[in-house]
């Protein structure tokens, strides 16, 4: 005698399915509620600064003039960090996933994962005490030999705590995140695709170029955006490494005049801020919130487009 399992239809679902479906839907709604709550809180707390007269804002020239330099500092440090970290991270991920021997790849994978777990304050101390001082001779050489380029115009900083140093520290911080996620994506490439490319006479690099990288492109973009999110919002490491000394916009990466980032500006001034000054800092936080949201929204749209184009 045989028994048949009733079909799982919309009208007759198991209790466990209903509980799981309801929990998943509730979690999704909860995320949206929390996100909206954070945005509304920032908007409400920043409202006094948004409507305040220009001469009452820090600097006396209005909120936009105050926010623009620190927004510029945030963007330029994050962009430089991404330009430096993403190619190296992808290279590390490809080496671990397709070039290194098994034992070496496992060891390197563990090291990369451990680097991703190091607290940002540790990177900040290292950048402040060791890395910045080690870069001073390089900055002096750049100012003397290629100072005609605006990015390396002198005089070079004697402490090494510049925008470029902060960007390099951020690049080191986001490198293991991007590398670890990219490695896992590359390892998911169907083995049949790789073997088919090799069977057609492709070299290992050609196989990676035409089979592995296209398959993992969307994952690399997602990993890069996660790294960018950390770079944009990093606080303690940038606060320790960057010697912020101006509220003006400058493209000199090795000089003594450095605009702060939004996160560093808030961290340095929030404990003592009251009244309108506090609202001004929260307005800066609102700008960072909108910027991070816009970057992630654009990344999600790009990933969706990549997936749609590959089908």
UniProtKB/TrEMBL annotation:
Q: Which CDD domains is this protein grouped with?
A: TM_PBP2 (cd06261)
Q: Which UniProt keywords apply?
A: Cell membrane, Membrane, Phosphate transport, Transmembrane, Transmembrane helix, Transport
Q: Which SUPFAM superfamilies would you find in this protein's record?
A: MetI-like (SSF161098)
Q: What residue stretches are annotated with the ABC transmembrane type-1 domain?
A: 71-299
- Pfam families (UniProt xref): BPD_transp_1
What Gene3D superfamilies does UniProt report for this protein, alphabetically? Answer: MetI-like
Tell me one GO molecular function of this protein. phosphate transmembrane transporter activity
Membrane topology per record: Multi-pass membrane protein
Its subcellular locations are:
Cell membrane
Gene Ontology CC: one annotated term: plasma membrane
GO terms for biological process, alphabetical: phosphate ion transport
Its annotated function is as follows: Part of the binding-protein-dependent transport system for phosphate; probably responsible for the translocation of the substrate across the membrane.
Write down what this protein is called: Phosphate transport system permease protein
| Annotated gene | pstC
């Amino acid at each position: 005698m045989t028994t048949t399992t009733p079909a799982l239809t919309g009208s007759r679902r198991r209790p466990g399915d209903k509980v799981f479906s309801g929990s998943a839907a509730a979690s999704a709604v909860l995320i949206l509620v929390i996100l909206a709550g954070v945005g509304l809180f920032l908007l409400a707390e920043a409202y006094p600064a948004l409507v305040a007269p220009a001469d009452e804002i820090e600097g006396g020239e209005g909120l936009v003039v105050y926010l623009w330099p620190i927004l510029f500092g945030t963007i330029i440090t994050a962009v430089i960090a991404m330009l430096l970290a993403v190619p190296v991270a992808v290279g590390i991920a490809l080496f671990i996933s397709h070039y290194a021997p098994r034992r070496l790849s496992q060891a390197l994978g563990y090291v990369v994962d451990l680097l991703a777990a190091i607290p940002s304050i540790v990177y900040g101390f290292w950048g402040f005490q060791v890395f910045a001082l080690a870069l001073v001779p390089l900055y002096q050489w750049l100012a003397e030999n290629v100072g005609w380029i605006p990015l390396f115009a002198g005089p070079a900083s004697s402490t090494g705590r510049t925008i470029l140093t902060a960007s390099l520290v951020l690049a080191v911080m986001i490198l293991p995140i991007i590398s670890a996620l990219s490695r896992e994506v590359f390892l998911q490439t169907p083995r049949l695709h790789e073997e088919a490319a090799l069977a057609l006479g492709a070299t290992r690099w050609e196989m990676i170029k035409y089979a592995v990288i296209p398959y993992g492109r969307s994952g690399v973009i997602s990993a890069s955006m996660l790294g960018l999110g950390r770079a944009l919002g990093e606080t303690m490491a940038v606060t320790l490494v960057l010697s912020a000394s101006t509220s003006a916009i400058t493209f000199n990466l090795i000089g003594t005049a450095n605009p702060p980032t939004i996160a560093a500006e808030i961290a340095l001034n929030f404990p003592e801020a009251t009244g309108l000054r506090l609202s001004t800092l929260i307005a800066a936080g609102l700008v960072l919130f909108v910027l991070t949201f816009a970057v992630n929204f654009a990344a999600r749209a790009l990933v969706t487009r990549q997936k749609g184009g590959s089908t």
